[in-house]
Specification:
Layout (H helix, E strand, L loop, with lengths): L5 E10 L2 E11 L4 E5 L6 H8 L7 E6 L2 E3 L4 H6 L2 E4 L11 H5 L6 E2 L2 E2 L1 H14 L15 H12 L6 E5 L7 H16 L3 E5 L3 H7 L2 E6 L2 E7 L5 H9 L17 E10 L5 E6 L3 E6 L5 H9 L4 E8 L2 E3 L4 H6 L2 E4 L3 H5 L6 H11 L9 H14 L16 H13 L5 E5 L7 H16 L3 E5 L3 H7 L2 E6 L2 E7 L5 H9 L13
Parallel strand pairs: 3-10, 3-11, 6-9, 9-10, 15-20, 15-21, 18-19, 19-20
Antiparallel strand pairs: 1-2, 1-4, 4-5, 7-8, 11-12, 13-14, 13-16, 16-17, 21-22
Helix pairs in contact: 12-13, 12-14
The structure holds adenosine-5'-triphosphate and magnesium ion.
Length: 504
């Protein structure tokens, strides 16, 4: 029996009012990919922060290669060969990609930073890993997926013995996930111990050797992945079986709710698409294909150069988020931290913000009604803890995402545009959310859902547009769509050089 690379011994950690970790024990072997599974708020990220030296456990301890290890600080973790890639990218936005990756040890030549050398080194590392980045780009200008790529490159810079990844693929699409997995497998062959957190069961299956399930901060069990069925894992995670997702009803052809004609922005276009009332339309494509850019143009955060947008047949001008809300379009963006949440405000305030942002013409929620709406979504989306006064900052990643969704759902828009709506949301809450989106469609709302997850789109949408290199490369009805056919449309031609799309 080899000595485990890492062991957690009865690790506990609490925050005011929450026992986030309650005597967690398991071990990770060298050359093993060990999945960590658990619903939103189960304690996964907290455990990784203990490993990274960000948090000190209240009790219990860790050992590395059989030796008791006090990981007193992130610096200490780094010295011990422990690297943690966080759920929320943790980069310096005003610095370039290369500076972020080599922060603290920039290459120096004649007592000056060797910029060309730095950029070459960055490109070389990215190349070796099969990833693409522009070393000179400022991080603030990158989309979420590209930031994740930078995080990964940064973590692999040092001599890593233990690598933990907290939902690294949440914004990546199949091709990028494939590259990341190839990378993880290579590290595994080198004897690196990998902890892998994800809510996507097919990924856990594809990459992990064993899996530990956490529930309410406690270890439920550690099992060999190939020896346990999905249904059992889900049962262990959420304590119930999932309703089998009932296939969506074919879209009732209502009136056209949204028409986009020949829309061109600096990064995408021309894009033309339609969403009918009562229809759920998908927007598929690889990272960088322009999915998010289209949603940004609809919210006015990315400027349209030409083309028209019509809502229920009437042309609208969208120069900023207020215009889109006034036009009846609610946009739920991907970057929840920067665009969607006020972390130091309560759950209730964050949900109601959407309502308050509604200009005078629309109805204004009364206090009482507001409280009722907040309660409704706390229950429907199972936001935990279900305490409207809790600060959003203290919620787990998946629960923050649910608050973002609640905020837009509560506005009862005519058109709802969602960018990666289930990023970081656990399987139980996901099925609730899909049911909710179908209810909205049934009530006549037109939905446009951009997602990197083809399986999600296939399960949810009536129709899908596929984007490639900033343009729509095809439109497929759900009945004719398969993962393969969508991927083919997403990848058909090699991307021409000289045009850069930095996010999904
Ligand atoms: N800084 C904090 N202050 C107070 N409570 C916190 C803090 N950080 C985490 N918690 C609470 O600890 C619990 C575990 O959170 P954690 O982020 O570890 O969950 P998770 O398993 O990573 O969930 P997700 O899948 O949603 O990312 C949650 O109840 C969360 O609200
Ligand atoms: Mg988390």
């Amino acid at each position: 029996m080899t000595t485990p690379a890492l062991e957690f011994h009865a690790v506990s950690k609490s925050f005011p009012g929450v026992q986030a970790l309650d005597s967690v024990s398991f071990d990770v072997r060298p050359g093993e990919v060990h999945a960590l599974l658990g619903e939103n708020g189960a304690g996964k990220s907290t455990l990784l922060r203990v490993l990274a030296g960000d948090y000190q456990p209240d009790s219990g301890y860790l050992s590395l290669a059989g030796e008791h290890a006090g990981i007193a600080s992130p610096r200490e973790a780094h010295r011990l060969g422990v690297q943690v890639i966080y759920q929320e990218p943790n980069l310096a936005p005003s610095l370039s990609v290369a500076e972020n990756i080599f922060m603290g040890h920039l290459p120096v030549k004649a007592r000056r930073v060797d910029w060309p050398g730095l950029h070459r080194a960055t490109a070389r590392r990215a190349d070796k890993l099969g990833l693409t980045v522009d070393p000179t780009r400022r991080v603030w200008s990158l989309g979420v997926a590209q930031r994740q790529v930078v995080e990964i490159l940064k973590a692999l810079e040092s001599d890593v013995r233990i690598l933990a990844l907290d939902e690294p693929t949440a914004s990546l699409s199949a091709t990028e996930v494939g590259m990341l997995f190839a990378l993880i497998r290579r590290l595994r062959e080198d004897g690196v111990a990998v902890i892998y957190v994800s809510h996507r069961m097919e990924e856990i299956r594809a990459i992990s050797d064993r899996v530990t399930v956490l529930r309410d901060g406690r270890t439920v069990d550690t099992l060999t992945t190939s020896a346990v069925a999905d249904a059992r894992l889900i049962m262990m995670m959420i304590g119930r079986t999932l309703m089998t997702a009932n296939a969506p009803q074919p879209g009732r052809s209502g009136n056209v709710a949204l028409t986009v004609r020949e829309l061109v922005t600096d990064e995408v276009g021309p894009v033309s698409l339609q969403v009918k009332a009562g229809e759920i339309v998908g927007l598929a494509g690889l990272v960088g294909s322009g999915r998010s850019r289209v949603t940004k143009a609809l919210s006015g955060t990315s400027k349209a150069r030409s083309g028209t947008i019509e809502v229920s047949g009437a042309a609208v001008r969208i120069r900023g988020p207020a215009d889109s809300i006034r036009a009846g379009i609610a946009i739920c963006p991907q970057d929840r931290k920067a665009l969607a949440l006020v972390p130091d405000r309560s759950i209730a305030e964050n949900i109601a913000l959407g309502g308050r942002a509604v200009p005078p013409r629309a109805h204004v929620l009364s206090r009482r009604r507001e409280a009722a709406v907040v309660r409704e979504y706390l229950t429907r989306l199972d936001i935990r803890p279900a305490d409207p006064s809790r600060l959003v900052r203290t919620l787990s990643g998946g629960n923050q995402q649910k608050v973002v969704l609640a905020r837009w759902l509560a506005q009862s828009p005519a058109i709802l545009v969602l960018d990666e709506p289930t990023r970081g949301v656990d399987v139980g809450a996901k099925s609730e959310l899909y049911a909710l989106l179908r209810d909205l469609a049934a009530a006549g709302v037109g939905l446009l859902v951009a997602s990197s997850d083809l399986v999600e789109l296939l399960g949810l949408c009536d129709r899908m547009y596929v984007m490639r290199d900033g343009e729509i490369s095809g439109e497929v009805a759900r009945a004719d769509a398969t993962e393969e056919s969508l991927l083919r449309l997403a990848m058909k031609a090699p991307a021409p050089a000289g045009r850069s799309h930095q996010d999904g």
